[in-house]
Please model this.
Amino acid sequence: MNHFHVRDDELWCEEVPLRALAQECGTPLYVYSHATLQRHFAAFDGAFADVPHLTCYAVKANSNLALLGLLAGWGAGMDVVSGGELFRALRAGCDPKKIVYAGVGKTAREIAEALRAGILMFNVESLDELRQIDRVAGELGLRAPIALRVNPAIDPLTHKYIATGLKESKFGIEAEKVLETYREALTLGHVDVVGIHCHIGSQITQVGPFRAAVDKIAELVREVRALGADLRHVDIGGGLGINYNEEEPPEPGQLSAEILPVLREIGATVVTEPGRVIVGNAGALIARVIYRKYTSAKSFLIVDAGMNDLVRPSLYGSYHRIVPLAKTPGTRWQMDVVGPICESGDFLAKDRELPAVPPGECVAVLSAGAYGFAMSSNYNSRPRAAEVLVRGGSYAVIRAREGYEDLVRGEAAPAAGPLDFRAPAAR
Ligand code: LLP
Model:
């Protein structure tokens, strides 16, 4: 359920007609619905209301400060995976005691930043990292709250690029090695063992893999507690899928009904890290048709958004619904919706049945709120799109459209004089 809907033969977001919005703000344009975001957060958070819990929104899905600020205001914690995401979470007003930090390559500098901020816990992904955290905490005279991220070797039945809990994944610590790693953690002088973590993948559309992971975690919690650790937080990660096309993912309530009985028995704060399910269907990418092109093999709708704006179709072969903003008369036929980027992989849809939307008119690429803008780039020197947030009948620009000057910021400009060549100071 989201707040993008057809009214008077046009697509609206809440009480705003998107054609007018595209006219006013230009394209490509990311549009988010405040009501949808709020509804999805409340639905997910509410599904765990019966137990002590903390919903840590996965910042990577969409890291716009304004959206983070709203989520923080509704009580969300945040799951971060870099110093930059930590910076954003704090800047958005998130309580550091609600921040969890995962990722296989946390640097000493990033660890220090998180320690100084006083986050809830590090989700530790290797023995090397554990020792590094202990060392950095020691240097700062602080204690580091940690959970170990377990790789439970469970197939989440999703795209292979976004399965993270398989035996061959780079993520987490093998289930067989977790106990000995906890044992070492308990001997370290600057580390407090406070939790356990796992995240098995993304766009998961069945409850089975979640249940299998939680069962595995429950077993480990008993064993880790037997070592004398005070495990207070059980972080089950994110990964709940959404409807892009024909998927029928479980509702948050169906997920919690399946796993809460096990989690209740563990008796710890349940931490979750939802990203896509909160923000995915709260956003659309609006693109304007530039040209139509018909070859003997194919028909193309060439639009002003490309793989630099939304890479999911190119990278994962992902399906995103595409609809014209205004009703377009005429027959529908199969077309590739492509961008202006000089790559054959630059497409938003392949062989999609659509009316021949005329140049100047716009289409909406739906379900683009998660991993859309967040994965965008300046490839082909394309300024990144603007982002707007619609609330009721009005909107706010929450990220200004980039301009050409943004493209060259920080680069050495020949016009400013000769390049500043120097030998490195340290040899
Ligand atoms: N927690 C951790 C440790 C994660 O690695 C992720 C996502 C999440 C939570 C949030 O997962 P979600 O609830 O959004 O499924 N770019 C890909 C998705 C990559 C997901 C990476 N990790 C895509 O566009 O489908």
Notes: The chain has twelve helices and 21 strands. Residues 208-226 form the longest helix (19 residues).
